[in-house]
Each structure stands twice: as structure tokens, then as C-alpha cells.
Design goal:
The complex is a heterodimer of chains A (320) and B (440). With 320 residues, chain A is an alpha/beta fold. Helices cover 40% and strands 14% of the residues of chain A. Chain A is built from eleven helices and ten strands. Chain A is globular. In chain B, helix 10 links the parallel strand 11 and strand 12. With 440 residues, chain B is of the alpha/beta class. Chain B contains 17 helices and 17 strands. In chain B, helix 14 crosses helix 16. Classes of the chains: A alpha/beta (320), B alpha/beta (440). The interface between A and B is large, with 53 and 54 residues. The structure holds cobalamin (B12) and iron/sulfur cluster.
Chain lengths: 320, 440
């Protein structure tokens, strides 16, 4: 006797969002990326009527994070794999594309001036045809000082600008709106705070297909369970029809995982931690895999091997 | 799924004889539904109702215990699809698969068995071994049993072989892999004889449900499901469907834990496969590779996913002595979130430098979280320093704050007159260097 499988029927869905613009659309990107569109909890296609073609949910994508200046505090394992390219963002972006990135995250630093920032962003845009996300250094004033000129100099490229947080979002949102870009909205691991920030950004007039939601995450062993559950709850809220949670999610497992001692330190650690390189890559890969399972649409990674493995996982999940 | 009071009422005699101590059968039914009374208090319940009530009280996913001499592992008994809905209870067992033909079998298992890794104060290990009968199974079982006390799983379909090997494991709760439509009858017999748990395997949930019912009819209650599936996506779909059927439809034939082989599509995918299985409902995860660099992160993932979302893992507030501190040793301040405490304690301990580590009651939150939530402020820090009589232990009244809360230093100075307040590095990794250079 065939079993009847209980299905979850959802009234809501995740918005489809496109990053990057080709020359036909007013940008210079060779490739653009569309994410979101999900109508079920991650990869549970059996819950939804068969969707195909334009209606099929888009698969999650992988961004590789690069910096405008060679980061001195990154794990030596990353320095080893990226080599000289780390001192040249354009070169680095090219290598990231070769490593399988679907898009690039370029993180600016406090040492950049506005002119530097514009120059670096332009050099990265000409070095690769991939869509681009640009992060300020994470200090409100400096973020605004760098992101506004970057936004103006790249009008029409449909970049993602970030990171908007509750204490600093107005300037970034305003310039993104004026120049046709998107924004990354980050709230600290809380469904209501995410929602609230999305409301504030929408209230400024930002079109809803230009907001990415960053729920914040912790690395494996350092709070991943909080991020994991908040993402599941956000996705459930979205499917239940809460419009202010229906944005695709971007998370930063690379940043978090490579901050941990397990990834950063090779010596003087317990023997039970095993081989350093393999452990560090596992740390990033497993953190990212868990977040892909809980609903991430963009995962930002740092090591090429992790990119390869997480990509493999996504392919298998999407072709079930 | 638990029955409602009304549903239970329909199964009672409905005579309101009051012998149970309640005025009506309905009142008694309500108490039963709330699990506040025992069914035994009513002398008149029919056998048929008793059976139905017992069934409905059984957990939707059967609790399976594998046992060896002194150690055991329990899986199943889960009640939710998403951990935030309540919590996941019984962590999946991590088993290492070995081959009976492996000349280094005993050595390999002994090495894996000695493996132990500490994560925030807890020691984690593997849970058992799966022996594949590609040559003399009995000899392999003996060799493995000599070097480990953990539960075993036997992978074989030759019934005579299984019978004799299980005979060597008398009194244990072993897992047998696997019964399918061709051999379930003989395997069920052998499982019953040795009180073993039987894995039932099929690529279709319909067949699986059919098989578990047949095996149950042969008297075997303890089963585990192998759902098949050719890749991550298929397995996610099937494990979700099986769990939903058990939890939402109270469908007993699939109300068993599942087993997943992480290296089925190659060892290069093993870590990712195991990670998904841990997050997505597996009861047992079988690994082929004994690699600490993979097992450690998987054990941590398992702990994280199975942590009760309502209770962060925390340590007792107090003064912790690290490396036998003396009166002149520095006083470091942190919070009582386990991850935070151990990050700091492990660094200081590893450096060999003595220190007093004052752990404040921050309701189990990390430094910044607690700071943002108002649970780690100057007042609380001062209260801890005073409450734990830190001044009596030291000759130098100097405390070190975490670098992330540098902003608190002025207020802490005000709250603790006579104390020197120093701001340490942001990350614990940099503490030893800071203690050597800046604290003299
Ligand atoms: C997990 C997490 C949570 C979890 C709680 C986890 C817990 N039990 O604490 C949850 C989801 C519940 C949470 C809640 C909140 N969070 Co929170 N959370 C995090 C997150 C992701 C990780 C924190 C963590 O576990 N770190 C790991 C531990 C080990 O770090 P740590 O305690 O700081 O310890 C390190 C150092 O401080 C140092 N150290 C520790 N002690 C000492 C002592 C000395 C002497 C020295 C020298 C060094 C030292 O060593 C450790 C290792 O290097 C961070 C963001 C991030 N990625 O860091 C945000 C973060 C801390 N949260 C934040 C906020 C704002 C909140 C909320 C107020 C908002 C909300 N979500 O509602 C609430 C507050 C809680 C409440 N009201 O109940 C902000 C704080 C912002 C700020 N700078 O003030 C952060 C930074 C996120 C952000 N970027 O906005 N959070
Ligand atoms: S003892 Fe049984 S039959 Fe009598 S009132 Fe109680 S429940 Fe009803």
C-alpha cells in the first residue's frame, strides 16, 4: 500500500533576486546571478508542485572573499594557497573565479582612501566578469566614506553594498538606491531584528528585489547552532507569508571559520585535532554545509578546496 | 502522537463508576492525557483499549539502545523536525567501519578507540565499530572485542555467520546490517534469537514500511532504517519524509531511527555527507576514515546541533585557578558561556602562565552578547570580584578585561576603587603574549 507523505504547503516564497548587470542592462558583467525563488524548506522539492524553467528555485551560490590589501591576520594556510595574488585584488579576483567562485566579495579596509576604494573596485570589475559584492571596513564613518564614491563610480553594475546594520544603513541604502545597486542587511542572529532592519530599509524606498538578508552566523563550535536555527526560522516565516523575511540569505562561514583557533593555529594544539590543513578546510566546509542546509542562498568562503566541496554538495542537493 | 482527552475517553467504559478516584470517566481521561495518572487506576479498561493506549503513548521514533560491556548508545525518541521547536535529544552514533579481512584490524580499532577529543570541557569519542564480513567474521569480532568496549554493528547477510558471531557477543545489544526483501525472514530470526537490532534496507519508503511490519510480526521490535538514496539530495528528501511520517502522521512502520553511510560516494565527500546526516536526522552515521581532522569537527557539529536551544552550555561562575596562581598572579575576567570560558582557560593553561580567572554570571552568554544584553557590565564585574573575595587572594589588585569590552574600563575603575583595570587583547589566542609582555 503506498504511503501518503505529509506535505508542507506554504503560502509564501523567497524573492528571486538578481546580482550584476550585463552591458545590455547597463553594466559590464559577463555573468549575472539570480538567487532565491524557493517555495519550500531547503531542497524539499517534493513539497511544491513541480516547478521548472523560470519558476524553478535558483540554487545557492558561492562567493569568494578577497581584500583590497593583503590581510596580515589571515591564516597562513590561506596565504599559502592564494600566494602573491593576495597583494593584488585584481589578480586575486581572477584566481577566485578560476577556483569556482560564482561571485566575488571585495572587502575594503580602513587603510583605503575613497580614491583607492574606487580604483580597487574598478580593477576587480575589469579583472573578472563575475558579479561583485563590496563590503566597507565595518566602521560606520569609514564605510560611508568609501561606499558612496564606489557606488557612484559603478552606477548600474548592480553590485551588492554592505554591510548595512541597524546603526549604519541609511547612507549605504540611499547611495545603493540612487545608483541601482543592492544592499546586504545584517542583524545579529535574531528573527525580529532581521525583520526590523528589512522594514527600515524598505521604508526608505529600496525595492524589495534589491535586499539581501544576512542573519549573522557563528563558526562550527563557536555558535553555529544559533545562526542555523535563526536561518531555519527566517525561512519558515518567509514561507508562512511574512513579506519582510522573504529575502535571500547571505552568510559568511569563511570569515567565521577562519577566525577559529582550529583553522588559524597549526602548532601547540591537541593532537586529537589532527592534520591542520585538512582540519581547517573541514571547519569551513562543514560550517558552510550546515548553513546551506538551513537555507543560505549565498555562502562567502575563503579556501578554494572548500569552494569545490560545498559546490559539489549544492549540486547534489539541487538535483535530487 | 499523544491522544487527546476526548480520544482517550472514547476508549474508557464511560460508566462513571468513580473507582479511579475521579467523578467521571471524562475527568480521568483528561488526567491521563496530561500524564498525571496511570491507566492502571481504572480496573475496567478493555484489553483492546489498553493496547491502543500503550501504542499511542509510545514515542513516534523508537528509542534504540546498542549496548556492549559497560558502554551503550541510545538513538531515536526525537519529537521535532527543527531544533528550535524544542530540541534534538539523542545524538546520532558515530561508527567506524572496518573490514574483517584487514590484517591491521585490531590495531586500527585500538587506535580509533583510544581517540578522545575535548570540546568546551566535554570529552568526545567514537561510539562503536561496524565490522564488514568480507572474511572470517567470528575471528574479526573476537579481535575487535578484545580491543574495544564499545557497541558493534555486523555487516553480513550469511545467517550462520551472523549467528555464530552474535553468539560471541552474548548479553550485548548489537546492530545487524541489513535485512531486505530477500532475506528479512532469516535475519529477523537471528536478530530475535540474539536480541539484536536489525537494520532494514530499501530504496523505497513503501517497501520499507512493508518490511518493518513483517519483521515486527516475527517478533523483532528494535529496527533501524537504511533509506537508500543516491546522493545528498535524495537522502535529505527521504530522511525528511520518514521523520515527518513518524512525527506528523504517527506512522509506526517508519518510526525508527535511520542509518547513513557517509563514504558511500567516496571518501572525498565523507565529511560533507556526514555533516548533512548529523544535521538532518540520522540515528547512526558510519564513517570509513579514521581521521581526527574530520572526526573532531563532526563531533563538534553533532554537539552544536543537539544542544538544547533554551540552555546555552555554561560553566559555574567563580574564581578558577589556572597553573597554580600566586598572590601576585594576574586576575582575568570573563563570562560563564562554556565556549568563552574554555577559549580563555585553554589558552592560559597552554601557556603555562599562572592566573586567577574570574568567571562572572553572564547567564551563559559570550562576552559581546552578554555586554549587548546588559549581562556583563561594570556592576556585574565588580559584584563578582567582591562576591568571590578576589581581593583576599591577591597581593596586586589588578584585573584584566577582555579587549572587546574596553569601553567598560572607566566604569569598572569607578565600581572597584583601589583596583587597577587593564584592557587585554580581543582574542584569547593573544593572551599569553599579552601576559608575558604587558603584565609585569
Ligand atoms: C552566538 C551569538 C549570539 C547567541 C548567544 C550565544 C551565547 N550563549 O552567548 C544569541 C543568538 C542568543 C545572541 C543574542 C544576542 N546577540 Co549575539 N552574537 C553571537 C555571535 C554570533 C557569536 C558570539 C560568540 O559565541 N563568540 C564566541 C566567544 C568564544 O567569543 P567571546 O565570548 O567574545 O570570547 C572571545 C574573546 O572575547 C576573548 N575573551 C573572552 N574572555 C576574555 C577575557 C580576557 C581577559 C581576555 C583578554 C580575552 C577574553 O576570548 C574569546 C576567544 O577569542 C556574535 C557575533 C560574532 N560572530 O562574534 C554576536 C554578537 C555578540 N551578538 C550581538 C548582539 C547585539 C546580540 C543581541 C543583543 C541581539 C539579539 N540577537 O537580540 C542578543 C543579546 C542576547 C539577549 N538579549 O538575550 C552583537 C554585539 C554587538 C556589539 N558589539 O555590541 C554581536 C557582536 C553580533 C553583531 N555583529 O552585531 N548572540
Ligand atoms: S474507574 Fe474507569 S470506568 Fe470508573 S470512572 Fe474511572 S475511568 Fe470511568
Amino acid at each position: 500500500m503506498p504511503i501518503e507523505i505529509p506535505k508542507d504547503k506554504w503560502p509564501g516564497s523567497i524573492k528571486s533576486i538578481t546580482i550584476g548587470a550585463t552591458s545590455a542592462e547597463g553594466g559590464t558583467r559577463a555573468k549575472i546571478i539570480t538567487i532565491g525563488g524557493g517555495t519550500t524548506m531547503p531542497y524539499l522539492q517534493f513539497d511544491a508542485p513541480v516547478l521548472s524553467g523560470d519558476e524553478a528555485p535558483n540554487k545557492p551560490v558561492i562567493a569568494i572573499e578577497i581584500k583590497s590589501h593583503k590581510p596580515e591576520d589571515w591564516s597562513p594556510l590561506l596565504a599559502e594557497v592564494w600566494g602573491e595574488a593576495m597583494s593584488d585584488p585584481a589578480e586575486w579576483a581572477k584566481k577566485a573565479e578560476e577556483a569556482g567562485a560564482d561571485l566575488i566579495v571585495l572587502a575594503l579596509t580602513v587603510d583605503d582612501s575613497a580614491e583607492d576604494a574606487v580604483r580597487v573596485v574598478k580593477s576587480v570589475l575589469s579583472a573578472t566578469g563575475l558579479p561583485l559584492i563590496v563590503w566597507g571596513p565595518g566602521q560606520a564613518e569609514k564605510d560611508n566614506e568609501l561606499l558612496v564614491p564606489v557606488s557612484e563610480a559603478t552606477k548600474g553594475e548592480k553590485l551588492v553594498l554592505g554591510i548595512c546594520e541597524d546603526k549604519n544603513y541609511r547612507t549605504i541604502v540611499a547611495t545603493a538606491m540612487a545608483n541601482g545597486h543592492l544592499v546586504q542587511a545584517r542583524a545579529p542572529m535574531d528573527v525580529n531584528l532581521s525583520k526590523q532592519l528589512n522594514i527600515l530599509i524598505s521604508d526608505m524606498g529600496m525595492p524589495k528585489d534589491r535586499i539581501l538578508m544576512d542573519p549573522t552566523t557563528g563558526a562550527l563550535g563557536y555558535g553555529i547552532e544559533y545562526g542555523y536555527s535563526v536561518m531555519e526560522r527566517l525561512r519558515l516565516a518567509a514561507l508562512q507569508g511574512d513579506a519582510m523575511t522573504q529575502f535571500p540569505m547571505i552568510v559568511t562561514p569563511g570569515f567565521e571559520a577562519w577566525k577559529t583557533k582550529e583553522s588559524k593555529v597549526g602548532e601547540g594544539v591537541p593532537e586529537a585535532w589532527g592534520d591542520w590543513t585538512a582540519r581547517a578546510i573541514n571547519w569551513e566546509t562543514i560550517t558552510a554545509t550546515a548553513l546551506v542546509e538551513s537555507g543560505a542562498d549565498i555562502v562567502v568562503l575563503r579556501h578554494p578546496e572548500s569552494v569545490k566541496r560545498v559546490k559539489g554538495a549544492i549540486e547534489e542537493l539541487i538535483t535530487a | 502522537m499523544a491522544l487527546s482527552g476526548i480520544q482517550i475517553y472514547k476508549m474508557l467504559p464511560q460508566t462513571n463508576c468513580k473507582e479511579c478516584g475521579f467523578p467521571t470517566c471524562l475527568a480521568f481521561a483528561m488526567k491521563l492525557a496530561a500524564k498525571q495518572v496511570e491507566l492502571g487506576s481504572c480496573p475496567y479498561v478493555s484489553e483492546e483499549s489498553k493496547k491502543q493506549l500503550a501504542e499511542s503513548a509510545a514515542p513516534p521514533i523508537r528509542l534504540i539502545t546498542l549496548r556492549a560491556n559497560g558502554t551503550e548508545i541510545k538513538v531515536g525518541n526525537e519529537v521535532v523536525m527543527f531544533r528550535h521547536e524544542k530540541t534534538f535529544y539523542n545524538k546520532p552514533g558515530l561508527f567506524l567501519r572496518v573490514k574483517a579481512s584487514d590484517p591491521d584490524l585490531a590495531k586500527k580499532v585500538a587506535a580509533a578507540d583510544a581517540y578522545k577529543v575535548n570540546y568546551v570541557g566535554m570529552d568526545f569519542t567514537l561510539d562503536g565499530y561496524a565490522i564488514e564480513a568480507d572474511s572470517d567474521l567470528s575471528a574479526a569480532v573476537k579481535a575487535v572485542r578484545d580491543v574495544t568496549k564499545r557497541p558493534l554493528m555486523l555487516i553480513a547477510n550469511d545467517v550462520t555467520l551472523l549467528d555464530s558471531s552474535l553468539g560471541l557477543l552474548a548479553g550485548e545489544g548489537t546492530l545487524i546490517y541489513a535485512g531486505d526483501s530477500s532475506n528479512y525472514e532469516s535475519l529477523a530470526d537471528v536478530a530475535k534469537k540474539h536480541k539484536a537490532t536489525l537494520v532494514i534496507k530499501s530504496d523505497s519508503l513503501d517497501d520499507l514500511a512493508d518490511l518493518t511490519q513483517k519483521v515486527q510480526a516475527k517478533g523483532v521490535e528494535d529496527m533501524v532504517l537504511d533509506l537508500g538514496g543516491k546522493n545528498l539530495g535524495e537522502w535529505l528528501t527521504r530522511s525528511t519524509q520518514a521523520r515527518r511520517l513518524a512525527l506528523k502522521s504517527n506512522f509506526k512502520p517508519l518510526g525508527y531511527p535511520t542509518i547513513f553511510f557517509a563514504a558511500q560516494n567516496g571518501v572525498e565527500k565523507e565529511a560533507v555527507y556526514a555533516a548533512q546526516a548529523i544535521a538532518k536526522y540520522a540515528g547512526f552515521v558510519v564513517l570509513d576514515t579514521f581521521a581526527p581532522e574530520m572526526i573532531y569537527p563532526l563531533l563538534v557539529l553533532r554537539e552544536n546541533i543537539y544542544t538544547d536551544p533554551q540552555k546555552p552550555i555554561q560553566v559555574q561562575p567563580g574564581v578558577y585557578e589556572i597553573n597554580s596562581p600566586k598572590p601576585e598572579s594576574p586576575v582575568l575576567v570573563t563570562t560563564n558561556f562554556s565556549i568563552t570560558y574554555f577559549a580563555v582557560a585553554n589558552e592560559v593553561e597552554g601557556s603555562g602562565l599562572p592566573a586567577w580567572l574570574v568567571v562572572t554570571d553572564a547567564e551563559g552568554m559570550s562576552v559581546l552578547t552578554a555586554w549587548a544584553a546588559g549581562k556583563f557590565d561594570a556592576e556585574r564585574i565588580a559584584k563578582a570580584i567582591k562576591g568571590f573575595n578576589v581581593a583576599d587572594k591577591v597581593s596586586k589588585k589588578r584585573i584584566v578585561l577582555p579587549g572587546h569590552v574596553a569601553v567598560l574600563s572607566g566604569e569598572v575603575e569607578e565600581e572597584l576603587p583601589g583596583w587597577e583595570v587593564r584592557v587585554g587583547p580581543r582574542e584569547a589566542v593573544d593572551l599569553p603574549a599579552f601576559m608575558k609582555q604587558a603584565l609585569n
